């Protein structure tokens, strides 16, 4: 890049299949070595083991094993905001810096959450299927759905994305409330400290927490029962935040009304039971998947790597 120190001899690893624009831009800046997400890390060639930076993305992340396979690793650039698949403690212990891509994807993920809310509560996906199947033309009348306007919207995790969802729903919600580990000082919405009270007070829960061990199974059977048979849930955060077996059971037994899901425990595998349910709207992890945002995310990964290579402060460090 013009005006920048030459970095083309710096060896870096791309871990898993990256977004093509990012891959091409990395190849112009660095000496890249591609490592498959399922590679035998004990058998990496010596040239790869020389890598000083690693570029990965949310669902692949950077477990301790890949860090240990790269003894000279200094920097991990992550093409996602969620870093639940990066062993951050291990990185910290090794003095490896980690960057992610906050903010640039917030609006798109919030848009998808709102889209899933409407698609689920208004039966948009199921009704689309019945029109395509010719059932409407044959005289089948779709079942009435529920209205969105006036619903009490519970945001689980009022972070960057949670707030963007709340802002979008302010004009239509009956009330917006939220639960997280602590109240957000400048938030205008009602904070509910107890997760079950939060679920009882919500008609729709939108899950927008971070993933990782601290939120694993946060939405459990008790919380789904507290949401109740008229309640809907939308998840754009990580599949791990909801106990997926409990969700399947609650949906199958009509203990909740429906779900809109962008994320799953074992992606890209979605439980057959969810695929078979008409009250569930499914997305293949598309929260940030727009042309505009994916480019902005890639540019932020590159800006962090350029800063690292130039010895300058990182733009969006996690650690
Ligand atoms: P963020 O600003 O860090 O917000 C995370 C929120 O989670 C905070 O409000 C935090 O509040 C809350 N939280 C964390 N641990 C919690 C716990 N144990 N119990 C309750 N609340 C908890 O992150 P963001 O930028 O909004 O992103 C949120 C997540 O969205 C990401 O981590 C990622 O997993 C997911 N995401 C998904 C997609 C997609 O394609 N579907 C795209 C981008 C991001 P407290 O710390 O106060 O508890």
UniProtKB/TrEMBL annotation:
This is 2-hydroxyacid dehydrogenase. Belongs to the D-isomer specific 2-hydroxyacid dehydrogenase family. Pfam families: 2-Hacid_dh, 2-Hacid_dh_C. Residues 115-287 form the D-isomer specific 2-hydroxyacid dehydrogenase NAD-binding domain. It comes from the Bacteria. It comes from Sphingobium chungbukense. GO terms for cellular component: cytosol. Keywords: NAD, NADP, Oxidoreductase. Residues 24-318 form the D-isomer specific 2-hydroxyacid dehydrogenase catalytic domain. InterPro entries: D-isomer_2-hydroxyacid_DH, D-isomer_2_OHA_DH_cat_dom, D-isomer_DH_CS1, D-isomer_DH_NAD-bd, NAD(P)-bd_dom_sf. GO terms for molecular function: glyoxylate reductase (NADPH) activity; hydroxypyruvate reductase [NAD(P)H] activity; NAD binding.
């Amino acid at each position: 890049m013009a005006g920048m120190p030459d970095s083309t001899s710096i060896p870096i690893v791309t871990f898993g299949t990256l977004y093509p624009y990012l891959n091409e831009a990395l190849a112009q800046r660095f000496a890249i070595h591609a490592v498959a997400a399922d590679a035998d890390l004990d058998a990496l060639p010596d040239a790869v083991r020389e890598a000083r930076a690693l570029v990965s993305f949310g669902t692949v992340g950077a477990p301790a094993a890949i860090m240990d396979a790269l003894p000279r690793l200094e920097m991990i650039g992550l093409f996602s905001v969620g870093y639940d698949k990066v062993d951050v403690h291990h990185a910290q212990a090794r003095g490896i810096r980690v960057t992610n891509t906050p903010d640039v994807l917030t609006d798109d993920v919030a848009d998808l959450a709102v889209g899933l809310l409407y698609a689920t509560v208004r039966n948009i996906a199921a009704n689309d299927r019945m029109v395509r199947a010719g059932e409407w033309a044959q005289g089948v009348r779709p079942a009435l759905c529920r209205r969105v306007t006036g619903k009490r919207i519970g945001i689980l995790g009022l972070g960057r994305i949670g707030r963007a969802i709340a802002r979008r729903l302010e004009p239509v919600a009956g009330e917006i409330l939220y639960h997280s580990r602590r109240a957000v000082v400048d938030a205008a919405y009602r904070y509910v400290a107890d997760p079950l009270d939060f679920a009882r007070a919500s008609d729709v829960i939108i899950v927008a927490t971070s993933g990782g061990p601290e939120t694993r199974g946060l939405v459990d059977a008790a919380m789904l029962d507290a949401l109740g048979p008229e309640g809907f849930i939308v998840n754009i955060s990580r599949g791990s935040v909801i106990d997926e077996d409990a969700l399947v059971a609650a949906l199958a037994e009509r203990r909740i009304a429906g779900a809109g899901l962008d994320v799953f425990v074992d992606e890209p595998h979605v439980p057959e039971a969810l695929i078979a349910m008409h009250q569930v709207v499914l997305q293949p992890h598309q929260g940030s998947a727009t042309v505009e945002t994916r480019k902005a995310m890639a540019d932020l990964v590159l800006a962090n790597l350029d800063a690292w290579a130039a010895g300058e402060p990182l733009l969006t460090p996690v650690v």
